[in-house]
Amino acid sequence: MSTHFRKDKKFNGFDLKLATEMGALYRSDCKALLAGIKNNSVDCIFADPPFNLGKSYGSRIIIDKMSDMEYLEWTQLWISQCVRILKPGGSLFIYHIPKWLISISNYLSSFENMEFRHWIAIKMKNGFPIKNRLHPVHYGLLYYVKCGKKFKFHVIRYPSPVCRHCGELIRDYGGYLKKYRTNENSIPLIQIADVWDDVNPNIHNKNRPKSINELPSTIPERVIRMATNKGDIVLDPFAGGGSTLSMAESNERYWIGCELGATVYAQNRILKEAKATKSAIPPQRIQKIFR
Ligand SMILES: C[S@@+](CC[C@H](N)C(=O)[O-])C[C@H]1O[C@@H](n2cnc3c(N)ncnc32)[C@H](O)[C@@H]1O
After folding, report:
1. Angle at which helices 98-109 and 68-85 pack, to 10 degrees?
2. CA triplet 144, 251, 213: central angle to 5 degrees?
3. Which one of 28, 56, 59, 62 would you pick to mutate in the ligand 1 pocket, going by the greatest count of ligand atoms within 8 A of its CB?
4. Closest C-alpha to 248, from 81, 90, 44
5. What is the pLDDT of residues 30-48, one digit of tens each?
6. What is the DSSP letter of 156?
7. CA 21 to CA 281: how far, in whole Å?
8. Which protein residue's CA is at the shortest distance from atom 3 of ligand 1?
9. Beta strand pairing status for 9-11 and 23-27?
10. Which residues pair with 121 in a beta bridge?
11. Global pTM?
């Protein structure tokens, strides 16, 4: 383990911003980084791209307002690379708003080797009513697997919701209740469904600008625990504040992150929250997947 880390070092042809014993974070356009990775080499990809809503990501090179046509072309480009680099049996998760997930899903289903698994609805805590529309209250998380090998799937459980006034269970689990409890009085641990309404937004930290648009770590952590094993490789092409990468690190998965804007927030999060140790070079497992 080395702590002699030099800033702005090129590795595998890309600007290496952080390396630990489990992963590497590069500053790059994801199109270029994905193109530099070998076919069939990554176990899981979690992508939370810019939504083309004109948001500022704190960098002038990131334009989040293209025409619908341009945005779709751009989206298909990075997705086709994700499909190429995913291992058979690997899982691809794309977090977006329903309007775009419909086109994305159509595109993914056009690949013979990609199989739809789920559309997970994730409740928004901060959606506002829009004139002449239904009030949007969910994001979607598309879940596809690459055919050719058995995919990994682990059941995730979480504590059943209870009434905040009386503490009683909100739902009746019938005969399953016994199965879900570890002892007679314990809160049942229920199996995760395809609606996630228990995901709380991150409490905004004054030292982290809103422009990095971080997801609550529960989302990537569930994905990682559900679809990968320890030692697998997880890739996030839009690393942002590092929620996926820090969860991969703390759950003992190898990881690769790519971010075109500032990477300092992701670096700090991985080092602080995941208690990672800097390394001089990316792990061998990560180095090997570059062309
Ligand atoms: C919605 S945020 C991702 C947030 C991340 N999931 C998190 O929880 O911290 C999208 C990120 O993609 C980055 N980005 C935009 N275009 C990019 C590109 N072409 N290549 C790589 N990153 C890009 C933005 O700077 C932004 O940080």
Report:
1. 50
2. 65
3. 62
4. 44
5. 999 999 999 999 999 999 9
6. -
7. 8
8. 240
9. unpaired
10. 140, 195
11. 0.93
Question: What is the number of the ligand 1 atom nearest to the C-alpha of 215?
Answer: 8
Give residue-wise pLDDT tens across range 192-217: 999 998 887 665 566 677 777 899 99
- Give me ligand 1 centre to Cα 44, in Å: 17
Ligand 1 binding residues, C-beta < 6 A: 29-30, 48-50, 57, 62, 212-215, 237-238, 240-243, 258-261
In the numeric block, which tokens belong to residue 149? Answer: 């090998």
Residue 168 CA to ligand 1 center (angstroms) comes to 41
For 164-181, write each residue's pLDDT tens digit. Answer: 899 888 888 898 888 898
Q: What atom of ligand 1 comes closest to residue 269's alpha carbon?
A: 9
What does 181-201 look like in DSSP terms, one character per residue? Answer: -SSTTSPPEEEP-SEE---PP
What is the domain partition of the chain in residue ranges?
Answer: 9-153+192-281, 157-191
9-153+192-281: CATH class: alpha beta
Dig out the tokens for 65 from the structure: 């307002």
Distance CA(246)–CA(105), nearest Å, equals: 27
Angle at 113 between CA 90 and CA 283, to 5 degrees: 30
Residue 124: how many CB atoms within 10 A of its CB?
Answer: 16
Query: Which atom of ligand 1 approaches the CA of 258 most closely?
Result: 21
Pocket test for ligand 1, best of 52, 259, 264, 265 (most atoms within 8 A of CB): 259
User: Beta-carbon neighbour count of residue 40 at 10 Å?
Assistant: 16
